[in-house]
User: Which sequence fits this backbone?
């Protein structure tokens, strides 16, 4: 499997390069980025044969079988559709788009071309959430409530590497997207009720710096989600699953019970790295000719819920 990583020197582009290096039978043959000097330097450092500032050039290559997009969110729809039109299966980093219209356009292109398109909903693959999902499927757990906190401290438009972004991050369409999709995936239902509240917008970034979201499924499970860019303390996303048969707390790839006893996740997956696991699913789905877990079609329900939440702000 020969893969092009677009947005390769960004914070998550590098994560995908590292993850792909751990997967047998996969080779990164092309990388794309907006700055010639930086993308050439990355390709040279990693021994990658082709580098470009033009995605179309990468898509035209015979040695590119599939594409991972770790580019700015506002480019995702246009680039994902271009990949599918070129016959290249594509994994789009979260979020696959920052509007319902763009998300629907991606799914429409997938249906028209028949080319695989996967959204980067990594929470489906983190071993901690996989452990919960396996027990829900086995009938051992039923979610009563998910209480989730997504907290960062941000005063400027910087990425996870501490470098300036060319686009603006968003609490709803990026960070809440993780939890909205995970809640509906874990419960197996689409939220019948969804609303949001947002705090003041940053005068320069133009985005809400605090947000509260509530959801409820037809069967009665609820989710409360608090998000902030104003949190001057431990950062990250913390999930509390309150179930009919126990309480569990997921902290990225670690899982604890309600009394803070760590749960052994050995054997849940072949890796503890969620990015590697989602890349493995992408590659396996292409090889098997099947729909991946987290396909654009499956994730569209979350994007519709995000759209409802955004409209509730007004």
Assistant:
């Amino acid at each position: 499997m020969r893969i092009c990583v677009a947005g390769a020197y960004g914070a998550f582009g590098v994560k995908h390069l590292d993850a792909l290096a751990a997967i047998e039978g996969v080779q990164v043959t092309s990388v794309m980025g907006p700055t010639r000097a930086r993308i050439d330097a990355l390709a040279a450092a990693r021994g990658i044969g082709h580098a470009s500032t033009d995605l179309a050039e990468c898509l035209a290559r015979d040695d590119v079988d599939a594409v991972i997009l770790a580019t700015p969110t506002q480019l995702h729809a246009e680039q994902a559709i271009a990949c599918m039109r070129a016959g290249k299966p594509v994994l789009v980093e979260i979020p696959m788009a920052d509007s319902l219209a763009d998300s629907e356009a991606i799914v429409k292109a997938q249906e028209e071309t028949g080319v695989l398109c996967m959204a980067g909903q990594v929470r489906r693959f983190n071993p901690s959430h996989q452990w919960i999902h396996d027990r829900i499927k086995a009938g051992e757990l039923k979610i009563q409530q998910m209480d989730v906190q997504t907290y960062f401290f941000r005063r400027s438009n910087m990425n996870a590497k501490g470098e300036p972004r060319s686009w603006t991050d968003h609490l709803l369409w990026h960070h809440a997207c993780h939890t909205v999709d995970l809640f509906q995936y874990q419960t197996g239902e689409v939220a019948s009720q969804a609303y949001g509240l947002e705090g003041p917008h940053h005068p320069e970034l133009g985005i809400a710096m605090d947000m509260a979201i509530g959801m409820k499924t037809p069967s009665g499970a609820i989710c409360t989600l608090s998000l902030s860019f104003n949190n001057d303390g431990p950062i990250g996303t913390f999930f509390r699953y309150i179930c009919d048969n126990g309480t569990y707390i997921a902290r990225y790839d670690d899982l604890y019970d309600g009394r803070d006893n760590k749960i052994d996740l050995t054997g849940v997956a072949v890796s503890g790295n969620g990015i590697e696991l989602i890349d493995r699913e992408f590659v396996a789905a292409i090889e098997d000719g099947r729909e991946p877990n987290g396909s654009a079609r499956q994730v569209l329900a979350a994007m519709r819920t995000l759209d409802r939440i955004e409209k509730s702000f007004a």
Summary: The first strand starts at residue 2 and ends at 6. The chain has two domains: 2-121+275-292, 126-268.
